[in-house]
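Box 3.1 — From sequence to structure: Aquaporin
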Amino acid sequence: MTLTSDASLDPAGLVAIAVAHGLALFVAVSMAANISGGHVNPAVTLGLAVGGNITIFTGIMYWIFQLLGSTVACLLLKFVTNGLKG
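Predicted structure (token representation):
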């Protein structure tokens, strides 16, 4: 799916997309650093819980809110793009 019909998929366009994703992840980790230590990925949370760095209860709570946040983000994207389909 593309949001525009003239989306660039040449090497420079792909690098720009990768850099944009990297910067977005950097911002997300920076925002969450003081709250959860910067782990915004449920797999990282699982690793920290299994490794004993956080309690299982804390890990479950982080999972709930990480998954809830991704669900809200998907719904917001659907709303902003008027349910655009590729």
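Summary of the box: The helical segments are 11-36, 42-50, 56-80.
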